[in-house]
Amino acid sequence: MYFFTSDEHFGHAKIIEYCRRPFESVHEMNKALVERHNEVVGDDDIVVHAGDFTLQKNAEKYIQRLRGRHIFIRGSHDKWMDDSYHERWEKRIEGQWVVVDHYAAFVWPGSHHGSWQLFGHSHGGLETHNLFPFGKQVDVGVDNHNFYPVSFKQIVEIMASRPENWNRLKKRR
Question: Quick one: which of 2, 93, 102, 173 has the fewest CB in 10 Å?
Answer without folding.
Answer: 173
